[in-house]
């Protein structure tokens, strides 16, 4: 039997956490033959609720689940983890300045980066879900210099999957018959996905309007897809979208965490090269890079 993989979920008492941990425990993220130990982190005001989630995980009797650590201690949460899914963060509340929200998230991601750097397993793979996802991932990279930058990513797979879903609905074909859409750049309203741009951009808002809560099951599912493809590889001829550290491909400034089309094999992603970018797309790629540079500057101004 395989050794268990330790998977950290921060913000595990939240909405996405509640949808995500059972998927991980059921093998949706790492495969049906891969035992897992869940590490769940949240903050003290959510400790009781986090413990409730742990009780439910016990009650679900998942055969693959070999242990659960539920804690408000960052070091305990990060110790020995092979995969870290960072869902916890400080949400933007009405009337709050962007800079104040950024500053809260910068301080969270700075301290969690240090804990991961010191205590995670070697070669830990990190996925940042919490918004601003690209920039939180960049801060994490800065403060965990010994974690290779290729191991740090952010989630744009939800936008990618939304685009697949919209195309399948519009063309009346199965979603499994649609592939290779691309999300470029930021998980935000400047992203580009070729077609159905505004529907995909506004899908999050449409879900909030309908559910009075933001997307959770689709976000959790996308996080599983992101890690599964990263660890187990993309099918031949298929690419997916991941927010990764830019190497300057497609003239995207190096040093941003930017969403690119990637293929994966042997636990490593590679940016798909040589796709042709028309003038319309070029403008969008540049606009989303510009937005991310501006966000990066804002984040750095919160450091010190
Ligand atoms: P919730 O508010 O339900 O849950 C967030 C949880 O994080 C809470 O339990 C909170 O106590 C915890 N938390 C706060 N600070 C923490 C810290 N320092 N350490 C550990 N835990 C901490 O939000 P939810 O709906 O689950 O969304 C989570 C995050 O995902 C948000 O930032 C949201 O904006 C982001 N999203 C990102 C998406 C993406 O595609 N990248 C899509 C979905 C989602 O909106």
TrEMBL record:
Active site: 187
Family matches, as InterPro entries: L-lactate/malate_DH (IPR001557), Lactate/malate_DH_C (IPR022383), Lactate/malate_DH_N (IPR001236), Lactate_DH/Glyco_Ohase_4_C (IPR015955), Malate_DH_AS (IPR001252), Malate_DH_NAD-dep_euk (IPR011274), Malate_DH_type2 (IPR010945), NAD(P)-bd_dom_sf (IPR036291)
Catalytic activity: (S)-malate + NAD(+) = oxaloacetate + NADH + H(+)
Domain Lactate/malate dehydrogenase N-terminal: 5-152
Residues reported to bind NAD(+): 11-17, 42, 105, 129-131
EC annotation from Swiss-Prot or TrEMBL: 1.1.1.37
Ranges where the Lactate/malate dehydrogenase C-terminal domain occurs: 156-192, 194-298
Sorted UniProt keywords: NAD, Oxidoreductase, Tricarboxylic acid cycle
A biological process term (GO) from this entry: tricarboxylic acid cycle
GO molecular-function terms, A-Z: L-malate dehydrogenase (NAD+) activity
UniProt-listed CDD domains: MDH_cytoplasmic_cytosolic (cd01336)
Binding site for substrate: 92, 98, 131, 162
Family: Belongs to the LDH/MDH superfamily. MDH type 2 family.
Name the UniProt record assigns to this protein: Malate dehydrogenase
Organism of origin: Trifolium subterraneum
Upper lineage: Eukaryota, Viridiplantae, Streptophyta, Embryophyta, Tracheophyta
